[in-house]
Amino acid sequence: MADIAHHERHGVGIRAIGGHLPERVVTNAELEKRLDTTDAWISEYIGVKTRRWSAPDEWSSDLGAAALLDACRRAGVSPESIDLVVCGTYTPDHLIPATAVAIMGKAGIRETPGFDVNSGGCPGGTFALDVGAKYVASGSYRRVAVVLADVSTKTFDPEDRTVGVIFGDGAACYLLEPTAAGKGVGTALLRSDPTAYTTAYVKREKRTWDDGSPKQSAFGDNFAHMHGRGVRDFALDRIPPFVEELVKGDGLSVDDIDLIVFHQANYHLIHLLMEKLGLPADRTMTNVQKYGNTSGAGVPLVLREAVDSGRITPGSIVVIVSFGAGMSHGGAVIRWTGDDDFGPVS
Fold this sequence. Notes:
Number of strands: 16
Strand content: 25-35%
Shape: globular
Structural class: alpha+beta
Number of helices: 10
Helix content: 25-40%
Largest sheet: 5 strands, mixed
Radius of gyration: 19 Å
């Protein structure tokens, strides 16, 4: 199939994953005071207990630079050794230049190319990873940082509970390097469905408060809009067969998966997807309950926790699946790598 790609010349491994979250913790109790909702409703239907909100002067590049530096620390490498920076975001600091360039400036990286990938926010955990993996697979770039960073809360209409209870801000960074053939990021499958274009999007329109005065988000007349039932129905209908197609393309079955990590859209939705796939709940991990939906950063932030807790180790078969605006959805099979699978640190 045209949309299944194999990296054959050498493998592309995830050397380290960095992460960063804003300091401010927002509880359901706080949201009860500002929105027409309750802790009981949020817990029952979304499964989020707390989330992180960025400060007014804290933007995608601030979170992304911190995540990149964290990845470098964890790998024991210098930021200056990075050959390419790819940033997956739908909340850029400015329309231009690329947020990747702002991240590089804040991380102390010079004379290195950087660009952004906007795959609709939430799908970025796999779409942007696949972009970076292909650059490493080409042989032209040895060390690539793929940063997922979004400040989704800055797209909020302050009175809109549909998005206000779900999203949080955060960033993560995959640090990619060549590894032995047959290891690392393997089969990738990417799709988009234009018929569902407006299921989740940032809507450009003028809104007003009750007194008629203009209402704006941090992005002006741009406001997050999401049809929650539409996202849920799409995921339950399309994602299970998509996962089966993905793993079959890599010569595996669903039962071969050691850990599957979904986009952190909704705690309960993730477990419904596990049931539809016939997998036990302990084959997945979530962080949506404590961080909210952190857009493209959700998947790598879960992977980071999985590595730190020993839930995945070298040789583990890991599947990641993202879905969201577009309705774009992507997945990848990863044969997890360890330090011994890479060359010497430099």
